[in-house]
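Hi P.,

Sorry for the delay on this. The queue was packed all week, but I finally got your sequence through. Input first:
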Amino acid sequence: MEKTCGLYPGLASFSRDYDADDYSDWVEQSNGDPLPAPLALYVQESSDVGSSHTAVSAALRLNALELELAMQGKLFDSDRPLQQLVLSSSLVIEWDDDQLHQLVSVIRDSFTIHETGVENGCACVGSASPDVTRLKLLSDLGFNKVRFSLLDRTNIGRSLDELGESIGLARQFGFSQVAIDLPVGVLRFLDFPQTVEAWLTRIAPDRIRLTGIVGEAGPVYTHMLSTLGYRNIGLDCYLKTDDVLMRARGGDRLHWSLLGFTDMTSPDVIGIGPGAISSIGEFYAANESDWTSYQDLLQQGHLPIVRGIELEADDVLRREIMVMILAGSCIHIAAIEAKWGIRFNRFFAAEVEQLRVLERNHWLDWQHDDIHILVRSREELAEICHVFDHRSCETLAPLPTPISESHRSSLK
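Then the structure:
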């Protein structure tokens, strides 16, 4: 799950006043939409790397996830098939074959899935080097995409060799998309950037994401990836020009969700596991993060949702602008004013001052009714989005009047 720019408002705004009953109401509303949102599902064992999930037996972990999957599946109408499935690296690598078979079986029993399988099934491998047996199993279970990460260690040459071998095996088993995360902080240990360029030329991953603070190394790798035919779609995510997301961007069909860039229109994202976050329309919910408490709630027959937030109209407007920034690289002022019934420069007076500063820094190109975003890095886009983060920016002026349910009249 994308942690930077992926969630607005942030977790600090979530309240314990919302629980599983509220979540069920939100799902019911979503089911009742004339055109319900696409469904995406991600499953994790923990929201933190250093969590205590490994202290819980594998059988108990599987049982808990099974219970939550079954409860969640009952909430969603059968005419809403899963279109995206993501499994976290600990599940993909640490669980044995029988456990993975059982987990995927429960997912299939709990949710509607097309006969051809989930269109976008991604197995996150992390920095591990899965063997032939594991990659074949993942393919047999219906996963068609895989994400690797370069191991953060000093012997980078060996890491590149191991990663290249794993990617080669993944292609042999028919994975249609191979993505890799490259930590820039690790790449600096290489004597020559040409080593990385030669490796990327040989391996030719479909998607590349530079992670960590790109900083001074950014221009070097940006030029390198551009030379190799990749384009930065934003947040240091580099894609080939024929990628489905690049085509979606060109057709103004690129969107942003908790799981990152997508060509699905505003999907409902179901998070399974301790600390998982779900996004249903204009509502967010967060699971209990402690494994013991998480299991106790499930054993009592309750979804483990302990916090949430129902977005106010102002939140929805600001989130919409952030999606424009991330997915479209343009803030369409006229479209915002027409939809929301506001005068952009007046309503966002404090934000406009900050945007003008960014314009002078050549991050933006303000052309009458459109503000074009000229930067692409994670740090830069996060800073632009932060301009509209009303909840965390205490310097911004409060709204002059409440916002009506229509999202329009009182915004003027």
